[in-house]
Structures are given as structure tokens and as C-alpha cells.
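testing teh design pipeline on a random one, pls ignore if ur not involved
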């Protein structure tokens, strides 16, 4: 079980891990070991996720989300397969935790009278500065 919060956990059967050969440092050893990890999680078809969490996850315009609703996270940060595996799982947990709570609705407000006046005074000052630049000299 991958624990997300007190009330939400994902069973191991919903996570698909694939191990790949990673690029980067490691010398000849990197050509023989599969230390990179690709974690796939079917967001759209997961029975463990509450419906509102699923819709918020799918609504995110994340490049790691496929058209079928599968989240693909790759980990090749470390040279060790175990550390990459833990890293990918932790990134999945953080991603899901980020959408657990619904974002607060923005309350539309109007600018105050004082802020409108400050804006207009600033525009007038700026206009005067620009006017002085374009004036012809008087001595001609």
C-alpha cells in the first residue's frame, strides 16, 4: 500500500513499474543495469481515488498525463534503482496530495477609490515626463 493521507492509500496492484537503462554518469556499469524507473498509474480507471480527486488530477494540464488518463512518472535522478523507485513513488504521493484539497474560490473585489486615484496621478506624472521630452528648444 502506498499511503497518501490518513484516509487515502493506493494498493500496489494499481501501480505499474518498469525498469529501464538510465543515461548519465556511471561508466560502463550504466550500460548493464536498469536503474531508471518508470511508474504508471491509471488515474482515470483507479477505484481507490475519490471522484473529486480524480477529476482535479485529470483537469491538470500535466505533460506526464496521457490522453487515456494514465500518469507516467520517470525517475533517473539517482544511480541506484531502489532510490529511483522511492523517488518516483514520493513524487506520485506529492502530486496526489496537491489535489486532495479543493482550491479556494477567488472572491472578486473592486479597487478602492484611493488606489484608482493613485493610478491616475501616476499616469499624469508619467505623461508630463514624456511631454517634456518632445518639446522643441526655445532658442531657435
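output:
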Amino acid at each position: 500500500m502506498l499511503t497518501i493521507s490518513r484516509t487515502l492509500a493506493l494498493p500496489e496492484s494499481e501501480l505499474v513499474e518498469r525498469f529501464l537503462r538510465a543515461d548519465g554518469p556511471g561508466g560502463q556499469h550504466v550500460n548493464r543495469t536498469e536503474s531508471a524507473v518508470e511508474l504508471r498509474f491509471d488515474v482515470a480507471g483507479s477505484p481507490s481515488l475519490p471522484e473529486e480527486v480524480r477529476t482535479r488530477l485529470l483537469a491538470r494540464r500535466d505533460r506526464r498525463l496521457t490522453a487515456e488518463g494514465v500518469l507516467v512518472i520517470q525517475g533517473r535522478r539517482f544511480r541506484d534503482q531502489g532510490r529511483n523507485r522511492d523517488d518516483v513513488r514520493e513524487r506520485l504521493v506529492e502530486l496526489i496530495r496537491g489535489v486532495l484539497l479543493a482550491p479556494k474560490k477567488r472572491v472578486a473585489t473592486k479597487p478602492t477609490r484611493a488606489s484608482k486615484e493613485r493610478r491616475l496621478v501616476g499616469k499624469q506624472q508619467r505623461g508630463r515626463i514624456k511631454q517634456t521630452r518632445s518639446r522643441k528648444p526655445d532658442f531657435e
